[in-house]
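Quick illustration, no need to memorize.
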Amino acid sequence: MAADPDAPEATDEQLAQGRRFTDALPALAARMEAGMVQRPVGRPRDPGKKISVSLRLDSDVLDKFRSGGPGWQTRINEALRKA
């Protein structure tokens, strides 16, 4: 904290004025206790569910898709969808 001038240490007077979270925001505290406030965890779900499969491809086919950089699996998926 000493190295951050934007976050000075609280004084005794400031600490004495502090309130508990449940006293300062009772409605929010009640919702949190009831489990009504939830934060999403992880990546957003993809609306189109994908299934993991094992697929054997010729090395030249795989090399061609991979040479395009990131997103090669998506490009394979698009090519298969067109077919």
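Residues 72-82 form the longest helix (11 residues).
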